[in-house]
Specification:
Length: 323
């Protein structure tokens, strides 16, 4: 890198989805390496509804690694440092001919990074925001540093060091996290079992009942098609109507087109819903207003992508600081 190029900034922006397990992992056999005691399987969720967007930038003018999460300064942590260390050690030569930037693989150990990440869904709501965040971080850094996998699933093993379930967010559709047998965790990786097109009609409904770091309180329901999903959502809205502080747009998020298919376009429509016809007695038509924070309508989605449009970056291309 020549002295005349000491003010350049090179950055990439990526998006990665979250995922929701249908077979969970129930503990770790190694806390430090985040190695599970069993395999797990998940659906990757539509990133248009639930995802993290992350911009990673490098410049010789940066004096330290810095990170911002949802607009606020983040101190990162040990797991964040683990991912950075693993990716940096695998960085390759990068040449940007258009801007005259040349980075040698050994430079990655001394160059500092600025990282900004934003979730399009609530953090700490039991929706695996850390899975989307760490998957996006690793994927974006790998693109920035031109990291090549030495074996299939290597990047997922690195993302696992940040958050166990993050390894499953490196792929779309249906994904399996293999517990592995090696003590170094090299074979504890994610593999794709089926693409998001495999169950194209599947609808996933999530009832968020409380803001929590544990996904346990959230109820997840799977409908084989939109017709069944509409009937299910209609019944859920009858039994669990929003409290008076909610609007329909904040109470049902994601693929809200299902609301129109069941004739619900306003809060008045929710209030006018009648008991499902299969109910036999008045006592079983009790409702529980305010018991649910909100509903998410989504579907299986694709894995991480790289944004080519600079307008989608979260960092200023001239300063390297949040926009």
């Amino acid at each position: 890198m020549g002295e005349e190029l000491q003010t350049w900034i090179l950055m990439v922006t990526a998006r990665a989805p979250t995922n929701i397990a249908v077979i969970k992992y129930w503990g770790k056999r190694d806390e430090k390496l985040i190695l599970p005691i069993n395999d797990s399987i998940s659906f990757t969720l539509d990133p248009d509804h639930l995802s993290a967007t992350t911009t990673v930038a490098v410049s010789p003018s940066f004096t330290s690694d810095r990170m911002w999460l949802n607009g606020k300064v983040s101190l990162g942590g040990e797991r964040y440092q683990n991912c950075l260390r693993e990716i940096r050690s695998r960085g390759n030569d990068v040449v940007d001919e258009k801007n005259g930037i040349v980075i040698r693989k050994e430079d990655w150990q001394r160059l500092h990074l600025h990282i900004a990440s934003y979730n399009n869904f609530p953090t700490a709501a039991g929706l695996a925001s850390s899975a989307a965040g760490f998957a996006c971080l690793v994927y974006g850094l790998a693109k920035l540093m031109d990291v090549k996998e030495k074996y299939q699933g290597e990047l997922s093993a690195i993302a696992r060091r940040g958050s166990g379930s993050a390894c499953r967010s490196l792929y779309g559709g249906v994904v399996k996290w293999m517990m592995g047998k090696e003590t170094d965790g090299s074979d504890s990786i994610a593999v794709q079992l089926a693409t998001e097109k495999h169950w194209e009609e599947l609808v996933i409904l999530i009832a968020v009942v409380a803001y929590t770091f544990d996904a346990g309180p959230n109820a997840v329901m799977y409908a084989p098609n939109r017709k069944v999903a509409g009937r299910l959502l209609q019944r859920l809205l009858f039994y669990f109507p929003p409290d008076s502080s909610k609007t329909l747009s904040s109470y049902v998020i994601g693929d809200t087109s299902i609301l129109g298919e069941i004739g619900v376009e306003s809060m008045k429509d929710v209030e006018s819903l009648t008991a499902p016809p299969e109910l036999k007695s008045e006592s079983s038509s009790s409702t529980f207003p305010g018991s649910i924070d909100y509903f998410i309508c989504t579907r299986p989605g694709k894995g991480p992508i790289l944004f080519r449009n600079e307008d989608q970056a979260l960092l200023n291309p001239k300063t390297g600081f949040p926009l």
